[in-house]
Design brief:
The protein has 28 helices and 21 strands. The chain has 660 residues and is of the alpha+beta class. The protein folds into 5 domains: 168 residues, Triger factor/SurA peptide-binding fold (Orthogonal Bundle), CATH 1.10.4030; 111 residues, Roll (Chitinase A, domain 3); 101 residues, Chitinase A, domain 3 (Roll); 95 residues, no CATH class; 95 residues, Chitinase A, domain 3 (Roll), CATH 3.10.50.40. Helix 16 crosses helix 20 and helix 19 packs across helix 20. The chain is flat, with a radius of gyration of 35 Å.
Length: 660
């Protein structure tokens, strides 16, 4: 329950930072601090469609919850929970995450999303040749690299073999290989969007099959690509599976490998896959749904072994042989194949990926234009020449040090509104990034120019991000919502959740006072026999009545490599999903139950266990959850006694009308 914050804790939006109009009415006060009708109205309307309980949709009921919410917020503030370092850290992390949504340009993002979606429909098979050149190389060195890659391209167009040229000239080590790994001759295999750096990806998708691209520059240097093939993306599949987990140390359950083979034999003999998944699969989340998993695409699963087997199935209802993954033993059945998702379905996911990809540069460019219009930015006229002068012959060596002249370091690089960025900050940035510039042909001026542009852009974006509350009302409102919700979460954790877990005496007392709420239904200690054939079921029933041991029955019934019976001994509560429908809890061997398909079930009841009170150790989690609810109710009572609440009765009577 720790993270199951009640609805009003996470949904209320506070607007205390915004001014109220003169016509706004005070709805109530807590210790003299007013809450206005406009705030209640906005919150109520915002949450109305997502409130499950009908009584909470009524304004009067919702009003009570709202007052409780405000009481808790007041208590949290009085306890100075907003001064805790852990609170500040988590709030800061959320703010940074939220701000990402406001550091974007919707039009530029939309274009990139559409482009990425179109590319994801295909997979391109390409080879490449790379000629290394630093991003900060001097113009003459850049020209040398460009002429070299163009010369290689010319030779290929005149008939030279692309693969042989890659082995001879490419600076990508994988092209040549080594004594242990053969060279790939530049062949990169199939890939789709987001698998390669963006300029390379764009060249791959804009070059026709069989053609060689013009040179494309990335951070690695110049590339040329030859497109070998383009194929449709495989899309997604839905499968069902049966999972038996490996035995843990000390467990006495049956060998999972042998049992999965037995189940596989039943499936091959016509057993219903879904019924067997419900009965035997230890993946309970899918087992209750006939073993069906949510649909997935290539590269989406944690288990490559499972994914490989699943995608090897071609026709619906096709079933794999038993195989092992890191999770245990499986049998997989193909349910259906799905084409690529629609644009609208993929849009949100693609937006997130683009923001973390190099193509986000296009979005940043648009935002930076907005920032430059929004703020007054003044820049030092001589800054580039000043920094060129300090880039001496040791600049790219370990010996170079940041200048120590205080007058130099304190000079203003540029200024945003009232915030100054100093030479010292940029010099520190250069010192840090200069050590990464290891290429021999790196040019100091080019390096300084590129780094200054990146440094300035980053500073502008950071300033805008930190100023969002002042320039964007929507951001301020959402941030305020989370700020208060997180504060109340900390309060609940301190006052309720941790107390419920650590107060063992109070928990036991609560349990004893409410024992009638925690009872077992009638149970049986029994053996459930599952058979795929009626004749086998009759034989098993006869042998169970004769008191034969399970291993003896298996030997008699499971013949000719056919598994005709699987036993599941255990204790089962009345109504348990493994007990057949219509089964009565009676001692002895039951009739044969048939589900109308191919599952024949017999139950041998060895002992009937009467209904009884559960032990605290058996249901501790449930009792703790109930105890938390009880503690919260008592705590709310004390808050109402400790804080002075004054409701404007005249306004309250008109509340429905005012909200409308």
């Amino acid at each position: 329950m720790k993270k199951s914050v009640q609805l009003f804790l996470i949904l209320f939006v506070t607007f205390t930072s915004f001014g109220q109009s003169k016509k706004d009415k005070v709805l109530f006060t807590i210790e003299g601090e007013p809450t206005y009708v406009s705030e209640f109205s906005r919150v109520y309307k915002k949450n109305l469609d997502i409130i499950d309980k009908k009584d909470q949709k009524e304004i009067e009921e919702y009003f009570d919850l709202f007052v409780e919410y405000k009481l808790k917020l007041k208590e949290a503030q009085n306890l100075n929970l907003d001064e805790k370092e852990s609170y500040k850290k988590e709030l800061g992390g959320y703010r940074k995450q939220l701000a990402k949504n406001y550091l974007t340009d919707n039009n530029a993002t939309e274009q990139l999303v559409k482009e990425a979606y179109d590319r994801l429909q295909k997979e391109v098979k390409a080879s490449h040749i790379l000629i290394n050149v630093s991003q900060d190389a001097a113009p003459k060195d850049t020209l040398v690299a460009y002429n070299k890659i163009m010369g290689i391209r010319k030779s290929i167009l005149e008939g030279a073999d692309f693969g042989e040229m890659a082995m001879s000239h490419s600076n990508d080590p994988s092209a040549k290989g080594n004594k242990n790994i053969p060279g790939n001759k530049g062949n990169l295999g199939y890939f789709s969007a987001f698998r390669m750096v963006y300029p390379f990806e764009s060249a791959a998708f804009s070059t026709k099959v069989g053609e060689v691209s013009m040179p494309v520059r990335t951070q690695f240097g110049y590339h040329i690509l030859k497109i070998e093939d383009v194929r449709d993306n495989a899309g997604e599949i839905t499968v069902a599976h049966i999972l038996l987990m490996d035995k843990k140390e000390g467990e006495t359950k049956e060998d999972p490998e042998q049992k999965i083979k037995d189940i596989y034999t039943q499936v091959q003999a016509g057993g219903d896959f879904g019924a067997l998944a419900k009965r035997f699969s230890e993946d309970r989340s899918s087992g209750v749904n006939n073993g069906v998993l949510p649909k997935f695409g290539r590269g989406r699963l944690r288990s490559k072994a499972f994914e490989k087997v699943a995608f090897s199935l071609n026709t619906p209802k096709e079933i794999s042989k038993p195989f092992k993954s890191e999770f245990g033993w499986h049998i997989v059945q193909l349910v259906s194949k799905h084409p690529m998702k629609s644009y609208e379905e993929e849009k949100s996911m693609l937006e997130r990926k683009i923001k973390n990809d190099k193509r986000a540069t296009a979005i940043n460019t648009s935002i930076l234009k907005k920032i430059n219009r929004l703020y007054t930015i003044t820049e030092s006229e001589n800054l580039r020449e000043d920094f060129y002068k300090i880039a001496d012959v040791t600049f790219f060596s370990r010996n170079w040090k940041k200048p120590t002249d205080a007058a130099f370091l304190q000079k203003t690089l540029f200024q945003i509104k009232d915030t100054k960025v100093t030479y010292d900050e940029f010099a520190t940035h250069l010192l840090k990034n200069r050590s990464r510039a290891t290429a021999k042909n790196t040019d100091a001026k080019e390096f300084i120019n590129r780094n200054y542009n990146q440094f300035k852009d980053a500073k502008l974006l950071a300033f805008y991000e930190g100023d969002l509350e002042n320039v964007n009302d929507d951001f301020a409102a959402i941030y305020g919502e989370y700020r208060d919700g997180l504060l109340l979460f900390d309060l609940m954790e301190t006052e309720i959740w941790e107390k419920a877990k650590t107060d063992t005496i109070g928990l036991e007392k609560f349990f004893n006072q409410n024992k009638k709420e925690y009872k077992w239904k009638k149970r049986v200690e029994a053996i459930i026999a599952s058979c795929s054939q009626e004749d086998a079921a009759k034989k098993v029933q006869e042998l169970l009545k004769a008191g034969k041991a399970l291993d003896e029955i298996k030997q008699a019934v499971n013949k000719d490599k056919k598994v005709n019976v699987i036993f599941s001994p255990g204790v089962y509560e009345e109504g348990h999903r493994n007990l057949p429908k219509g089964f009565k809890l009676e001692k002895g061997v039951s009739n044969i139950f048939n589900d109308g398909k191919t599952d024949f079930t017999i139950v041998k009841v060895n002992e009937i266990i009467p209904s009884s009170h559960k032990k605290l150790s058996e249901i501790k989690g449930k009792v703790i959850s109930d105890y938390q609810v009880y503690l919260e109710k008592e705590w709310i009572k004390s808050l109402k006694e400790n804080y002075k609440i004054k409701i404007n009765k005249r306004v309250y009577r008109k509340l429905k009308k005012l909200v409308k």
